[in-house]
Structures are given as structure tokens and as C-alpha cells.
Amino acid sequence: MKRVDAIKRISEQLEDELVICNIGFPSRELYAVKDSPTHFYMLGSMGMASSIGLGLALAQERKVVALDGDGSLLMNLGSLVTIYNQDPENFILILLDNECYGSTGSQCTYASTVNLSRIAEAVGFKNIFSFKGDLDLTEVLKAEGPVFVHAKVEPGNADVPVIDMEPEEIKERFMENLK
Ligand SMILES: Cc1ncc(C[n+]2csc(CCOP(=O)(O)OP(=O)(O)O)c2C)c(N)n1
Ligand SMILES: [Mg+2]
After folding, report:
1. How far apart are CA 132 and CA 167, in angstroms?
2. Which CATH fold topology does 3-178 show?
3. 176 pLDDT exceeds 90?
4. What is the pLDDT of residue 131?
5. Residues having CB within 6 Å of any atom of ligand 1
6. How many C-beta atoms lie closer than 10 Å to residue 143's C-beta?
7. Chain segment 103-118, per-residue pLDDT in tens
8. Which residues have a Cβ under 8 Å from the Cβ of 18 and sit 6 or more positions away?
9. Is 11 exposed, middle or buried (0-12, 13-18, 19+ CB in 10 A)?
10. 148 near 128, Cβ under 8 Å?
11. Is the C-alpha dihedral spanning 169, 18, 24, 9 positive or negative?
């Protein structure tokens, strides 16, 4: 399954959950597949989707889904430790693992030799789901958080345009939806 198909499958199963999406093509693909004021598209640093998602889950009661990448999670592995210790029951971290820095030319990451869900398990996450094919989130959405979802996807980016919203617009629309 390509990352864009995984994103499509995830977005069709979500309702009013808040979504924090990883920088680069994942955000562009989500924006192209389905845009919503419940989406926050990361346009800045790698590694921050899980941390922003955690902060948001702790700050309010709605369910938060963070879509992260293997390269980004590897850049901020400590985030798993913080998430586990903060224990937000309304937080789902979905790792779209293509074993590469897909957005910048598909250079390999170490996700091909290190199993990132085993790391989440070792940290203490109780609810971990692994997918290689169809991303049926029925059980994931019922599970108590923090939940870690490990989805293996194929490398490659969809041919989608850049997001035609200013960063301020994305932030303000998202914050308005939160009120
Ligand atoms: C701190 C930092 N370093 C480098 C970049 C450049 N950059 C943007 S996206 C990306 C690759 C992200 O890889 P991954 O998180 O695995 O997501 P994928 O594109 O593979 O879905 C890189 C290197 C950045 N935005 N921030
Ligand atoms: Mg990747």
C-alpha cells in the first residue's frame, strides 16, 4: 500500500478527531485526499507531529490522531517516552513507515533494520497495532490511548500540489475549530 492510499483509508474512517500531520508529502497528500478544519498540516520541522499531538491531547478532551513518518519519529524518539509517561488516553500515534525520507528523495532510514513498534512496546505502550496491508482502524479507534499504530507503506509520493494555505491560515482555522 502506498502512503497516499493509507492516508485515504485513515481519513475515511475518522470523524471529528483532530489530526496532526507530518511535514512534507504526507501533509500534501492528506490535503489533496481530504481537507478539513480538524487537520493541522505541519510545515516546519521533522519530528514534531508526535509532540504537537501529545500537547494537544493533554490540553483538551477530543481524540487526537498524529500521522508521523519513520524518519521523523527517529529524529524525535524521546517523544515516545514522553507520550508513555504523560499517558493521554485520547491520543493515537500512527506511524506511516516507508523506511525512508520519502518527501526528500526516498533516502533510506534505519527503520528497515530497527522495528519501531518494538521500541514503542519496550517503552511501555500497551495498545500497539501493526499493519502491512489494509488499515482497518475499527479496533484502533476503540482502544484506550496512548495507542501506537505501525503501518508499513511503500516508498513513493503521490503527484499532489503544495498546500495553498498560509501557515497562519492553517493554524487559525484549526484553533477556531477547537473552540
Ligand atoms: C529538522 C528537519 N530536518 C530535515 C528536514 C527536511 N525534510 C522534510 S520532510 C523530510 C523527510 C521526512 O521523512 P519521514 O518522516 O520518514 O516522512 P516521509 O516523507 O517518508 O513520509 C526531510 C528530510 C526538515 N523539514 N526538518
Ligand atoms: Mg518515511
Report:
1. 33
2. Rossmann fold (3.40.50)
3. yes
4. 97
5. 3, 22-26, 45-46, 69-72, 96, 98, 100-104
6. 18
7. 999 999 999 999 999 9
8. 38, 40, 56, 62, 63, 64, 65, 174, 177, 178
9. buried
10. yes
11. negative
Residue nearest to atom 11 of ligand 1 (CA): 101
Return the number of other C-beta atoms located less than 10 Å from residue 27's C-beta.
Answer: 26
Domain ranges of the chain: 3-178
Distance of alpha carbon 142 from the chain centroid: 17
Strands 107-108 and 100-101: antiparallel
Which residue shows C-alpha cell 524521546? Answer: 78
Distance CA 163, CA 4 (A): 15
| Residue having the nearest C-alpha atom to atom 20 of ligand 1 | 102
Closest atom, ligand 1, to C-alpha of 68: 15
Strand ranges inside the chain, DSSP E: 18-21, 39-41, 64-69, 91-97, 100-101, 107-108, 127-131, 147-152
Q: Kindly report the pTM of this predicted structure.
A: 0.98
